Amino acid sequence: MERYNPKIFLRSLLFSYLLSGILLVVISFALYRFRLKESQIQMAVILVYVLSCALAGFLAGKGLRRQRFFCGLLAGVLYFLVLMAVSFLLEKGLAPSIQQIAMVLAICAGSGILGGVLS
C-alpha cells in the first residue's frame, strides 16, 4: 500500500483553517451587527465546521487522487484533533461534555468524507 503524503494534508488543513478564520470573522460581524441569538451562532459554528472539513477533505482527495473516502475521513479527523488540541491548551482542560465532543468529531469526519468523495 502506498503511503500518504503529509504535505497534502498539511496544505488542506491550512486552507481549511484559513476558511474557518474568515467565516468566524463574518460570524463575529453578524453577531455585532444583527445581535444574533445563541442558537443562531451555534448553527453558524456548525456550518463553519462542515464547510471547513469538507474543504479539507476535498483538497486531500484531489491531492492524493486515490482512496478519497479515507483521505476525506483523515482530513476531517485531523481538523478535529487540531481543534481539540487548541481548545485543550486554551481552556486548560476539556470543558465540553463527551456528547458534544463526539458530535463535533462526527460532524468533522462526515464533512471530510463528503469533501473527499466529491473531489
Overview of this protein structure:
With 119 residues, this protein is mainly alpha-helical. It has four helices and no strands. The protein has helices at residues 6-34, 38-64, 68-91, 98-118. The longest helix is centred in the N-terminal third of the chain and has 29 residues, at 6-34. The radius of gyration is 15 Å and the shape is globular. 29% of the residues are buried. The model has no long low-confidence stretch (mean pLDDT 89).
Summary, kept brief:
This protein has 119 residues and is an all-alpha fold. It contains four helices and no strands.
Write the layout of secondary structure elements.
Elements: H1 6-34, H2 38-64, H3 68-91, H4 98-118
Helix pairs in contact: 1-2, 1-3, 2-3, 2-4, 3-4
